[in-house]
Specification:
Elements (H helix, E strand, L loop, with lengths): L19 E8 L5 E6 L1 E6 L4 E6 L9 E7 L12 E8 L3 E7 L10 E7 L2
Antiparallel strand pairs: 1-2, 1-8, 3-4, 4-7, 5-8, 6-7
Protein backbone atom coordinates (compact mmCIF):
# COMPACT_ATOMS: atom_id res chain seq x y z
CA UNK A 1 0.00 0.00 0.00
CA UNK A 2 1.23 3.52 -0.81
CA UNK A 3 0.85 6.58 1.37
CA UNK A 4 0.13 9.99 -0.10
CA UNK A 5 1.07 12.92 2.13
CA UNK A 6 0.24 16.52 1.20
CA UNK A 7 0.01 19.83 3.04
CA UNK A 8 -2.59 21.36 0.71
CA UNK A 9 -5.13 19.65 -1.52
CA UNK A 10 -6.47 21.61 -4.50
CA UNK A 11 -8.42 21.01 -7.68
CA UNK A 12 -6.66 21.61 -11.01
CA UNK A 13 -8.38 25.01 -10.98
CA UNK A 14 -6.67 25.91 -7.71
CA UNK A 15 -9.71 25.54 -5.44
CA UNK A 16 -8.70 24.38 -1.97
CA UNK A 17 -10.36 21.14 -0.79
CA UNK A 18 -11.39 20.50 2.80
CA UNK A 19 -11.08 17.08 4.43
CA UNK A 20 -12.75 15.24 7.28
CA UNK A 21 -10.51 15.60 10.35
CA UNK A 22 -12.47 13.49 12.84
CA UNK A 23 -15.33 10.98 12.86
CA UNK A 24 -17.16 9.16 15.63
CA UNK A 25 -19.93 6.63 16.20
CA UNK A 26 -21.08 6.39 19.82
CA UNK A 27 -23.79 5.31 22.25
CA UNK A 28 -25.46 7.76 24.66
CA UNK A 29 -27.61 5.22 26.52
CA UNK A 30 -26.61 4.34 30.10
CA UNK A 31 -22.79 4.47 30.13
CA UNK A 32 -21.74 6.38 27.02
CA UNK A 33 -19.26 4.53 24.84
CA UNK A 34 -17.48 4.89 21.50
CA UNK A 35 -18.27 2.26 18.85
CA UNK A 36 -15.67 3.58 16.39
CA UNK A 37 -13.74 6.81 15.87
CA UNK A 38 -10.92 8.51 14.04
CA UNK A 39 -9.28 11.67 15.36
CA UNK A 40 -11.31 11.55 18.60
CA UNK A 41 -9.62 11.10 21.96
CA UNK A 42 -12.68 10.68 24.21
CA UNK A 43 -16.31 11.49 24.96
CA UNK A 44 -17.83 12.84 28.17
CA UNK A 45 -21.41 12.27 29.35
CA UNK A 46 -22.84 15.68 30.33
CA UNK A 47 -26.36 14.49 31.14
CA UNK A 48 -29.35 13.27 29.15
CA UNK A 49 -28.73 13.84 25.45
CA UNK A 50 -25.50 15.78 26.04
CA UNK A 51 -22.07 14.51 24.96
CA UNK A 52 -18.75 16.32 24.71
CA UNK A 53 -16.52 14.98 21.91
CA UNK A 54 -12.79 15.73 22.43
CA UNK A 55 -10.46 15.69 19.43
CA UNK A 56 -6.97 14.16 19.13
CA UNK A 57 -5.78 17.30 17.34
CA UNK A 58 -7.29 20.75 17.73
CA UNK A 59 -8.90 22.51 14.79
CA UNK A 60 -7.24 25.78 13.69
CA UNK A 61 -10.39 27.73 14.76
CA UNK A 62 -13.97 27.10 15.93
CA UNK A 63 -15.41 27.58 12.43
CA UNK A 64 -15.30 23.90 11.50
CA UNK A 65 -18.23 22.14 9.93
CA UNK A 66 -19.89 19.00 11.28
CA UNK A 67 -22.53 16.53 10.15
CA UNK A 68 -24.32 14.41 12.71
CA UNK A 69 -27.30 12.22 13.43
CA UNK A 70 -28.72 9.70 15.81
CA UNK A 71 -31.07 6.75 15.95
CA UNK A 72 -32.78 4.64 18.56
CA UNK A 73 -32.10 1.57 16.41
CA UNK A 74 -35.61 0.14 16.72
CA UNK A 75 -35.91 -0.77 13.03
CA UNK A 76 -39.24 0.97 12.39
CA UNK A 77 -40.03 4.69 12.38
CA UNK A 78 -41.22 5.99 15.74
CA UNK A 79 -41.18 9.35 17.44
CA UNK A 80 -37.79 8.48 18.90
CA UNK A 81 -36.22 7.83 15.48
CA UNK A 82 -36.23 11.52 14.55
CA UNK A 83 -33.09 13.18 15.75
CA UNK A 84 -31.43 16.50 16.27
CA UNK A 85 -27.77 16.29 17.23
CA UNK A 86 -26.53 19.86 17.37
CA UNK A 87 -23.88 21.97 19.09
CA UNK A 88 -24.81 23.14 22.56
CA UNK A 89 -23.06 26.54 22.29
CA UNK A 90 -19.92 24.93 23.67
CA UNK A 91 -17.74 24.71 20.58
CA UNK A 92 -13.97 24.89 21.08
CA UNK A 93 -11.00 24.03 18.87
CA UNK A 94 -10.32 20.91 20.96
CA UNK A 95 -13.89 19.73 21.63
CA UNK A 96 -17.59 20.21 20.92
CA UNK A 97 -20.64 19.47 23.06
CA UNK A 98 -23.45 17.85 21.10
CA UNK A 99 -27.03 17.71 22.31
CA UNK A 100 -29.62 15.23 21.02
CA UNK A 101 -33.35 15.87 21.16
CA UNK A 102 -36.60 14.32 20.03
CA UNK A 103 -39.03 16.02 17.66
CA UNK A 104 -40.63 17.75 20.64
CA UNK A 105 -37.25 19.18 21.65
CA UNK A 106 -36.98 16.87 24.66
CA UNK A 107 -33.42 15.79 25.53
CA UNK A 108 -32.92 12.12 24.69
CA UNK A 109 -30.09 9.55 24.78
CA UNK A 110 -29.71 7.74 21.45
CA UNK A 111 -28.37 4.21 21.07
CA UNK A 112 -26.47 5.13 17.90
CA UNK A 113 -24.99 8.55 17.17
CA UNK A 114 -22.53 9.50 14.48
CA UNK A 115 -20.70 12.68 13.51
CA UNK A 116 -18.02 13.88 11.11
CA UNK A 117 -16.00 17.07 11.60
CA UNK A 118 -14.51 18.98 8.65
CA UNK A 119 -11.74 21.55 8.97
CA UNK A 120 -12.23 24.98 7.38
Amino acid sequence: MSTLKVDNLQTTGGVSQKTVQSTIQFNQVSTQSIYASSGVSSITDNGTGKTTVSFDNSFPNVNYCFLSGGSNGEGSPTSTDAYNLAPNNLTATSSIRLQSKLRGFTAFDYAFCSAAFISQ
